[in-house]
Amino acid sequence: xxxxxxxxxxxxxxxxxxxxxxxxxxxxxxxxxxxxxxxxxxxxxxxxxxxxxxxxxxxxxxxxxxxxxxxxxxxxxxxxxxxxxxxxxxxxxxxxxxxxxxxxxxxxxxxxxxxxxxxxxxxxxxxxxxxxxxxxxxxxxxxxxxxxxxxxxxxxxxxxxxxxxxxxxxxxxxxxxxxxxxxxxxxxxxxxxxxxxxxxxxxxxxxxxxxxxxxxxxxxxxxxxxxxxxxxxxxxxxxxxxxxxxxxxxxxxxxxxxxxxxxxxxxxxxxxxx
Length: 274
Prior knowledge:
With 274 residues, the protein is α/β, with parallel strands linked by helices.
């Protein structure tokens, strides 16, 4: 089974693919070693690690170099967060996806929020881009998992009373246009999740956050994929900041008693890849 076939097969309703999003080769290899079956990147995590803010401000050459480095050190299939595609014209979006494929990715997230101008793209415009990407992948002879994301909930767009219906409308349209999965960050209410799953014919992805239902509960609701976004990167940087502050403010090393990866463990992660 190819990496792409394996990634498609991991999306099963009621048995969620759990993704602890990586931001560099180190985090990706660590998560794989801990038993995660696939690796997904965080756009914010990768951008911040490369010295950029999230929101399509990252240098694309550096972004895809980072993606290639992640693919190099893991055997698990890798999906890339490509934000809104770094170009709203269908041909530009398709070229961005092609670069991700060239870097070794077998899937991507593609959102409908324009980070440069703000606001959601029209449903028609996003569907056109999805069709262009899927047609381009077919022309390349590549199976590629396109996870279509809507930010109706995440960006709190429109009347609160209509956001669930708007989310469902968009995700159904994106699936009809050829998307292989559907993603709606900002949805955490069990009843809303269950409703979305019931309305879709493609796997549904939940972005977990504090207060979200447990993985087992999300599985019961029919979710097929759970991701953490930039949460893991921010947890790691929070721990690094705490250590830095202790060192500067107190001159002590209490952080050393925490869950620190040993030098030997770190090196062992890459002994086969180096």
